[in-house]
Amino acid sequence: MNIISEIKISPESVFLNGTLISSKGITELYREYVGNYPKFFKMDSLCKLGFIAAELLLRDFSIEEKEDCAIVLFNESSSLITDRNYENTIIDPENYFPSPALFVYTLANIVTGEIAIRHKIFGETSFYVTDEYDESYMESIVRNTVLTSSPSMILYGWVDYKTENDYLASFKLMKN
Amino acid sequence: MDNLIDQLKKQIIEVLNLEDMTVSDIDTDAPLFGEGLGLDSIDALELIVLLEREYGIKLTNPAEGKAIFKSVSSIADYVSKNRKK
Amino acid sequence: MIVKIADNILSPLGLTTDENFNSILAGESKLAVHQNVFGLPKAFCGSLFDRERLSKILAESITDSADLSFLEQLCVYSALQALENTGINPANPDVIFVISTTKGNVEYLSEDRMDKRSYLAYSANRISRYFANPNKPVVVSNACISGVCAQIAAVRELLSGRYRYAIVIGCDVLSKFIVSGFQSFKALSADACKPYDKNRSGLNLGEAAGTIILERTENPISEAWQYAGSSIHNDANHISGPSRTGEGSYRVLIDLLKSVDRSELAFINAHGTATAYNDEMESIAIHRAELDETPVNGLKGFYGHTLGAAGIIETILSMKAVDNSVVLPTRGYEVQGTTYTLKLSNQKKETVKKAFIKILSGFGGSNAGIAYRKGGIE
């Protein structure tokens, strides 16, 4: 499998295949490149980030081409940003209203599910948590994926959302 | 009643993150789920939380929600009859 | 070839695989209604560790146990038990740790939102470092399917040739965070759950840890449990609701049937959470895969849903069942309650078959399965 495209989204810049294409925030990117998927606004920050990064790499492929794509993502903070928001709904006994819409996003792998739903991908979805951004570690896990499965494409990479000013999606798309 | 309906619409837009929608975009009698606003099962659960937090109404059985959450007018009707706050 | 060489189950039913297996054969469960635990305003039915009693046992077995969280101690204890008598030195570079957990130490968030112990990799590193293992542990976070995904990740690490042994640990403990979330989802049954039953009304949550040690070898011992095949598929349907067509789970089963034959299967150990939608979805997937004649069981009626541990402990118990020529009962099941009739029973049955399929499904629309086969006598 060869890498055919890549995307890097941070608060400062968006690079598609090495070219700076935007310096907009995640919601502005959604308005520019998608615009008609209201479910986007229900997602937590991690999912919005992963969703838009995947969109920019997968939008030119047909449903058939994407059906068997594997999605293998990594990060350090798992879903902690939403975990903390959910915790805020249960911490005060006087104001205890656990939110199901937040709770469902307290799992990092939901971002792989959101991407799968958007692109009708029925392939493998996997999420790994590691202590640092490490390309060779990610690549070794991704290479190993094909030892027990035969996806047509693999979308893989890093998606970590720490704060409004500190996030990174760095995805690559591999194809046979 | 009209006040309650507008208030409910505002609250629904906020808790369900219906970005780009305003109170006037929501038809009071139109179905909320399926066709209408395209709400789903998580939205229904979030509406249960809304009723409890804002109006002191406890729904224990999500099946009860089906009839109540048919439209904004059916919610308003239920809230006005059952609200504790 | 990948074989299982050791295992452990640490649960409210016992500290060893044998204690757990014997409890299940005796029909036991620790599912009970708990009031006023974890600071929860509402009661829930679940299977909980006796923390006071267990903490003493953990402290006796684990050096400097106070440095580790309860969850980390459970993982270390379970791995120590599994390692006993294997002769494996976990400090060797040919050993990799694979950790499966959904929420790790999430309870620390209630005191300090930035507590580094709530980072899953931080916690996993503490577990592998306890054993002086030099490799970065693999941490799988795929919600409810993590326990099977961790085994698959381990198999891949071994097949890559980089490692000889994989120590796969699954663990979750309950907290206000997790229980309140499932309560907000109205997903919990008020009493012991009833998988696949007509009157099922939701799941129970449970606590457990489990360890499976896998080895890559060309010369397996006779009657060793061999990895046969695995698969992961998404439903591409909804982030919390199971697919109405069972698409992801069906695709998993079809993949697994490339490595095991229907006629070999002693049973399918299914997810069987006892929610209306999960069990119905599985019945559709199993029917579509033409596995209606294969016995099916679910073990959540004994343990509840043990989240990141479920895939590990249910795999171990399935191996143990075949070792003893039985199909374990589905505790709580009474009346057929899914669209397609599955071959379920609340009584244990005999079997002479030597392979099984373990499947799971969960949040994120994810589905995973793994198949194992027991080798013959040489």
SSE string of chain B, helix = H, strand = E?
Answer: HHHH
- Any low-confidence stretches of chain A, pLDDT <50, length ≥5? none
Strand proportion of chain A, as a percent range, falls in 25-35%
Instruction: Provide the helix percentage of chain A.
Output: 25-40%
- The strand count of chain B comes to 0
CATH class of chain A: Alpha Beta
Largest sheet descriptor of chain A: 7 strands, mixed
CATH fold label of chain B:
Non-ribosomal Peptide Synthetase Peptidyl Carrier Protein, Chain A
What is the CA-CA span between the terminal residues of chain B?
15 Å
Looking at CATH, the homologous superfamily of chain A is: Thiolase/Chalcone synthase
What can you tell me about this protein's structure?
The complex is a heterotrimer of chains A (176), B (85) and C (378). Chain A is α/β, with parallel strands linked by helices and 176 residues long. Chain A has one domain: Peroxisomal Thiolase, Chain A, domain 1 (3-Layer(aba) Sandwich), CATH 3.40.47.10. Helix content of chain A is 34%, strand content 27%. Chain A starts with a strand and ends with a strand. The mean pLDDT of chain A is 97. By secondary structure, chain C is an alpha/beta fold. Chain C has two domains: 215 residues, Peroxisomal Thiolase, Chain A, domain 1 (3-Layer(aba) Sandwich); 149 residues, 3-Layer(aba) Sandwich (Peroxisomal Thiolase, Chain A, domain 1). Helix content of chain C is 29%, strand content 22%. Chain C has a ten-stranded mixed β-sheet, sandwiched between helices. In chain C, strands 2-3-7 form a three-stranded mixed β-sheet. Chain C has a two-stranded antiparallel ribbon with strand order 12-13. The mean pLDDT of chain C is 97. The chains are: A alpha/beta (176), B mainly alpha (85), C alpha/beta (378). Chains B and C meet through helix 2 of B and loops of C. Strand 5 of chain A pairs antiparallel with strand 5 of chain C.
Structure in a nutshell:
The complex is a heterotrimer of chains A (176), B (85) and C (378). By secondary structure, chain B is mostly helical. Chain B is built from four helices and no strands.
Question: In terms of topology, how is this protein built?
Answer:
The complex is a heterotrimer of chains A (176), B (85) and C (378).
Chain A: E1 2-9, E2 14-16, E3 19-22, H1 26-33, H2 45-58, H3 63-66, E4 70-75, H4 80-88, H5 100-103, H6 110-119, E5 125-129, H7 135-145, E6 153-163, E7 166-175
Parallel strand pairs in A: 4-5, 4-6
Antiparallel strand pairs in A: 1-2, 1-7, 2-3, 6-7
Helix pairs in contact in A: 1-2, 2-6
Chain B: H1 2-15, H2 41-55, H3 62-68, H4 72-82
Helix pairs in contact in B: 1-4
Chain C: E1 2-10, H1 17-25, E2 31-34, E3 44-47, H2 51-61, H3 70-83, E4 95-100, H4 120-130, E5 138-140, H5 146-159, E6 165-172, H6 176-184, E7 205-206, E8 208-216, E9 225-234, H7 247-256, E10 265-269, H8 276-288, E11 296-297, H9 300-303, H10 310-323, E12 326-327, E13 349-350, E14 355-362, E15 366-374
Helix pairs in contact in C: 3-4, 5-10, 7-8
